[in-house]
Design goal:
With 764 residues, the chain is α+β, with helices and mostly antiparallel strands. It is built from 15 helices and 44 strands. Strands 1-2-3-6-13-12-11 form a seven-stranded antiparallel beta sheet, with no helix packed on it. Helix 9 runs parallel beside helix 10. The longest helix is centred in the middle third of the chain and has 19 residues. It starts with 15 loop residues before the first helix and ends with a strand.
């Protein structure tokens, strides 16, 4: 009798690699959704589905979906409850056009129309433990779009809708994207890049052509004139800015140049402010204000302002449908596009937060929509005309209106994508440099359909006559840039240089990574503010990325918690920059609407900032960096030396700010420690720096720096140099005990070129 050994059934522990992979995967176990080894959602219903393994390089990436009992054009599915220990940041549409941030701990507080949910949990007590971040991102899935919302019962739901009763489904497959990581900024970037690859309907900002106007100072006509814009006023504004030393090289001719008609001036029951939004476009050329003796036509004006005032780029405003109320269907010039009058239908998500007077007006009076099969022809006709008269690009407004017009057109996603594709094709055909600014476009249909468009407004308008909205604006644009900044260059909007909040807004624009432009009335300027942003040649010192809140600010309310400062970070070629803003006390978030108006107060807040708050500092510094930095405070003019994990205390009153340039200190020639700071009189001092190099001979250690100018140049130096030269000419310099070496960069023969700086240290 022979015996056969039984198969081995003893337990083998998983390998370290397998365990690590399991900790990073997203998976459903029982009724729990686990991300990064933590339970994110509990009590998930059985109809929730998970598609994991969407990319081998991102084991934590997955899609959530759900299955319904019957087909519909709109479903609301529960995902479960948010587990304890997490806190979240929501970017949600507080009104149809725009997103805003909200923070909280549980699912009940997640607002309707949430389009991004970033969550954080930590090991151990307090804020010192290792963090895990989870991204829950509702996206487009076929002809449907998803959004998140909480319920009073503390459930997190996703809404799945097509916007057309005839476009129905029972199943959401890839509706909500989930991913996790230990760094929120890397998580956002990697997730958006992965999504763009999987979905194929949009591109990451690094894959897009960036419009050249962004590197030049601009002026927009909107707040200067509103719809009363005219040729004489435009010339007057350009001249007053140019004569004051801040020459605009970029101009937006905003709303007011087109030929429109108001059909409803006789409608007694309609307030005039409502009928304005229902006005319609009559034809594609300029109105009578731009045709006359002083200005023959739009082309005559564009030629004059380019030749006389040195403007490089002229953009013209138009709405996605031509004008706010679309086009006039009975106009002879519009009949070729087969327009028809339709009436918007808002989704429950739109009306769950703040209603908007513009879309409410269009619901009543209708929109003249162009046949989707003719929309490219319309855009091509409009843009080819503008291009023929010297206009370089367009600002395209009122884009989210398309989500309300999907009935009978295949739904909101399909209709939006049809229009966006036609728009981008026309831009590419008629303008040279991807010259488009997208505006009022914060719905997921537009965001995740942007294949080419590279610039988008980051928030609701700057409102100069609303004092309680100034601090909100800065917080809003910074938080919205977390998502928008991965797909667009966020445009933080115009501001007024002569305004009680001008320094606050100007400092923020310097950190934004986007365009810098004002909407001053002609002759009403504060050049002391403008010259901190604009060089004499009209160029600006634009940072490399989208300005975003620092990691430790992401889940704190910088507007209403009464204790938190807002820190915004960015990087330049050789340095980082952090702006610290006190946004408390001046205003409240505008939702929900309070019956009692906010009374502004002044709140003094003390906080801390550290060089490590700036992401990517190690990448700028290079491999041979020991972690020491030179930190220059713009307003106080103080220079400090800090290790990257050390911190400084900062105290600010309401609507005050401080900007810190953070430059890694590097050792040259074995003994000299140097950290270039840039142009000390500019908000973003380090934005002027291009490169640094060194050489050593028998007599000197020489540091070579390329920097834009003119202006007062500063550099941290551990020793007093023997000689400083600018473009081979020796210059006088000052050197203080704190190590600040400074000297003037004079005007050069060509202001747009870099100055060649040489600092020589005599070898002992």
């Amino acid at each position: 009798m022979s015996l056969v050994a039984p198969a081995c059934t003893s337990f083998r522990p998983p390998s370290a690699a397998a365990s690590a992979r399991q900790m990073t995967t997203t998976r459903l176990e029982g009724r729990s959704l686990l991300v990064g080894g933590r339970e994110l959602l509990a009590q998930s219903p059985p109809e929730v589905t998970l598609r994991a393994g969407v990319d081998d390089a991102a084991p934590g990436a997955a899609f959530l979906g759900a299955t319904a009992a019957a087909p519909s054009s709109r479903h609301v599915f529960s995902l479960g409850t948010i587990s304890k220990g997490w806190r979240w940041l929501s970017l949600f549409r507080f009104k149809i056009w725009w997103m805003a941030p909200k923070m909280g701990p549980d699912a009940a507080g997640v607002p309707a129309e949430t389009q991004m949910l970033l969550l954080e949990t930590r090991n151990g007590a307090g804020a010192t433990g290792d963090a895990v971040y989870a991204l829950v991102l509702p996206v487009l899935d076929g002809d449907f779009r998803a959004s998140l919302q909480g319920t009073p019962e503390d459930e997190l739901q996703f809404c799945f809708e097509s916007g057309d009763p005839d476009v129905q489904t029972m199943e959401a497959v890839d509706a909500v994207f989930v991913n996790s990581g230990d760094n929120p900024f890397k998580l956002m970037k990697e997730s958006i890049k992965l999504l763009s690859k999987i979905k194929g309907t949009f591109r990451h900002i690094e894959s897009k052509e960036i419009p050249a106007y962004l590197d030049w100072f601009g002026w927009c006509t909107w707040d200067a004139f509103y719809r009363a814009v005219n040729p004489a006023g435009i010339e007057e504004g350009l001249q007053s800015l140019r004569e004051g030393g801040a020459p605009p090289k970029f101009l937006i001719i905003d709303d007011g140049w087109q030929e429109i008609v108001n059909e409803f001036t006789e409608v007694e029951e309609a307030p005039i402010e409502q009928t304005i939004f229902a006005e319609r476009l009559v034809h594609l050329k300029e109105n009578d204000k731009f045709r006359g003796e002083a200005c023959k036509n739009l082309g005559d004006l564009v030629k004059k302002i380019k030749e006389k005032h040195g403007v490089k780029y002229v953009y013209a405003w138009h709405a996605l449908l031509g004008y706010w109320g679309g086009v006039l269907a009975t106009s002879d010039a519009m009949k070729k596009y087969n327009p028809k009058l339709v009436y918007p239908v808002q989704s429950p998500g739109n009306v769950a937060n703040l209603r908007d007077v513009a879309i409410d007006s269009l619901e009543k009076f209708g929109v003249g929509i162009i046949d989707p099969e003719k929309i490219y022809e319309f855009y091509n006709d409009q843009h080819s005309y503008l291009s023929s008269v010297g206009v370089n690009g367009v600002k395209v407004d009122v884009q989210n209106v398309m989500e309300t017009l999907g009935h009978g057109f295949g739904g909101r996603v399909a209709l939006t994508r049809k229009y966006q594709q036609a728009l981008e094709e026309s831009i590419a055909r008629n303008f040279k440099g991807n010259d488009i600014i997208c505006c009022m476009c914060h719905n997921s249909e537009n965001i995740f359909s942007a294949m080419k468009s590279a610039v988008a407004r980051a928030s609701e308008d700057f409102m100069p006559r609303e004092p309680t909205l100034q601090t909100l604006h800065i917080a809003n644009v910074a938080f919205n840039s977390l998502l928008l900044g991965e797909i667009f260059i966020p445009d933080w909007d115009m501001f007024h240089s002569k305004h009680e909040s001008a320094e606050f807004h100007g400092a923020a624009r310097a950190l934004s990574g986007g365009g810098v432009y004002v909407s001053d009335k002609p002759g009403v300027h504060n050049f002391s503010v403008l010259k901190k942003l604009v060089l004499p040649d009209g160029s600006i010192l634009r940072a490399r990325h989208a300005g975003r809140p620092t990691c430790d600010c992401l889940f704190d309310d910088p507007v209403m918690d009464g204790k938190s400062l807002l820190k915004i970070w960015n990087v330049n070629n050789l340095s980082a920059v952090i702006g610290v803003f006190n946004c408390q006390g001046a205003g409240n978030w505008t939702w929900p609407v309070n019956a009692i108006p906010h009374v502004p107060t002044t709140v003094n807040i003390t906080g801390h900032f550290s060089p490590s708050d700036a992401e990517s500092l190690e990448e700028i510094a290079g491999d041979d960096w020991n972690g020491e930095t030179a930190v220059y405070a713009f307003n106080s003019c103080n220079l400090s030396r800090l290790q990257k994990n050390q911190s400084l205390e900062v105290s600010l009153c309401t609507m005050a700010c401080e900007i810190y340039t953070i430059s890694p200190i590097k050792v040259f020639g074995e003994t000299v420690r140097v950290a270039p700071l840039g142009l000390l009189s500019m908000f973003n001092s380090g934005g002027a720096l291009d490169s640094i190099a060194s050489s050593v001979d028998s007599s000197y250690t020489a540091i070579q720096i390329k920097c834009r100018g003119p202006g007062r140049f500063g550099v941290y130096s551990s020793a007093r140099p023997a000689i400083c030269r600018v473009d081979a000419h020796e210059v006088e310099f000052s050197y203080s005990d704190d190590g600040l070496l400074a000297f003037d960069l004079p005007d050069g023969p060509s202001l747009s070129h870099h100055r060649n700086i040489e600092i020589l240290y005599r070898l002992s």
